[in-house]
Structures are given as C-alpha cells and as structure tokens.
Specification:
7 strands; Rossmann fold; binds NADP nicotinamide-adenine-dinucleotide phosphate; seven-stranded parallel β-sheet
Length: 247
Amino acid sequence: MKRLNGKVAIVTGSTSGMGRASAILFAKEGAKVVVTGRNESRAQEVVNEIKEAGGDAIYVIADTSKKEDLDKIVDETLKAYKTVDILFNNAGSLSLSPFMEIKCDEWEKSFKVNVDAALILTKKVAPIMKAKGKGVIINTSSVAGLMGYHGFVGYVTSKHAMSGLTKSMAIELGPEIRANAICPGAIETAMLDSVGGVSAVQAMVDKSPLKRAGTPEDIATVALFLATDDSSFITGQLIRVDGGVDI
Ligand SMILES: NC(=O)c1ccc[n+]([C@@H]2O[C@H](COP(=O)([O-])OP(=O)(O)OC[C@H]3O[C@@H](n4cnc5c(N)ncnc54)[C@H](OP(=O)(O)O)[C@@H]3O)[C@@H](O)[C@H]2O)c1
C-alpha cells in the first residue's frame, strides 16, 4: 500500500534540490503532486520523471515572492485535483550579506520568499484542510533558523521567523492540521553549490558525527514521514536533519 495514496501535495521549490526529491518521493508513494518554481524547463523535467514512473503531477510556474503567483498555485491545484492535503513550503532564497551591508530589497526578498509565501499559501489551503478534518503543513526552515551564523543576517532572521511561524501554525490550525518544520544542515543542492559546495562547509561536516553532507533524499524521507500518519502525534516541531552538527 502506497503511503500517500489519494493525497494531493503542493511542493514549492520542487524544480531543484530537496523539493524536487520530495515531489518525486511523494508521487512514488501515490500522491498527486503540484511541482512549482520559476524555471519551466526544470519543472517540466520533474513532472516528466514522475509521469514516466507511473505517477501523477502537474507544474505551476510561480515566483513565490509574488502574491498573484501564490494565488495561481492554489487555483491551478484546485482546478487539476479539486483539493489539497499536504503543503510543503520549501522554496527558499539565500541572502549572503552581512549585517552592516544588507540592503532593504535583499532583506525584503528573504522574508517574501522564506516566510511570507508560507503564511499566504497556508492561509489559502488551511480552510480546505479544516473542512476535510485533516491536513499537513511542512515548512523548510534551516539550522540557520535555530542558531546564528555570521554573514547571513537576512537568511538567518527569515529562517528564525519560519521556525516561529511553524509553531504558530501548529497552535492555531490544530487539531485538524499538523505543522512541522524541517531544519536541514548542509545538503548537497544548487543552493549549497552557490556558496562553494561541500568544501565550503567541510569544517562543519568534519566535526559532525556522521562526517558527510546530506543529500536531497535525506530530507525527502523526513518530509514523507511528516506527511503521513506515521507522524500523527507530532506537530509544532523544528526537526534538525543535519548529520548531528552542534549537538
Ligand atoms: N542546501 C542547504 O544546505 C540548505 C540548508 C538549510 C536549508 N535549506 C533550505 O532548503 C530549501 C530548498 O533549498 P535547496 O537546498 O533544495 O536549494 P535549490 O536546489 O537551490 O532549490 C531551491 C528551490 O527553491 C525555488 N525558489 C527559489 N526562489 C524562488 C522564488 N522566488 N519563487 C519560486 N521558487 C523559488 C527554486 O526554484 P526556481 O529556481 O525554479 O525558481 C528551487 O526549486 C530552501 O528553503 C533552503 O533555504 C537549504
């Protein structure tokens, strides 16, 4: 029995990295998946891969910093699949400016993509989930949503906000809806490549008990756990998936 049979899942930021791996895994487990991102060719590739494996998926091209695009994600989902059971707020934007250098537009973009989109999308799908008596929200925060790091003030602050947002969602949207956040450590994706890849975080990896960076699949399997009833008594949690750094 597939674990997400009959479920409809929106995965933001699923044209790449951990969102892509999660969309593919959710579809393999029977979910109808809505793939989103700004890059149409990569979105099409993910949908093709899902369909070639016998799954069901559509893509919606959307910039999650734009309110009208967030409306489009939910509208297209309902048009194709009539409902939403799982929302994975995973799209994220990295901001690399230190405190004294960050400009307002970079700060605002961090919040729009990393926090506001999750608030807006969740407000749109929560009434549907409440009416069904069940729903799951999964947010991607970060280890940078749990502790400070030098040189990433927009990212660190917005990811801390995502952690707080997750707790507020869990408290205010229960008992029908469970909301949890995954806090990844260093994961081998395009985002990590943009700051120099695994070699840029080698010191962190070396002092971690598992001595490796994570893979997108390491995150996807945790997202699947949070999406299913296997985690039915877990809500409001910030779950580190980081190979044990800083324990
Ligand atoms: N990799 C790490 O080490 C790490 C660690 C902790 C947390 N995270 C978080 O994990 C999440 C996934 O990142 P990843 O590592 O898998 O990176 P990735 O491979 O670069 O994927 C990022 C995804 O977010 C989407 N995205 C970014 N900005 C967007 C926007 N304005 N509108 C719509 N989609 C947007 C991208 O889609 P398009 O390019 O198609 O728009 C892409 O699908 C992010 O929230 C990130 O902050 C990553």
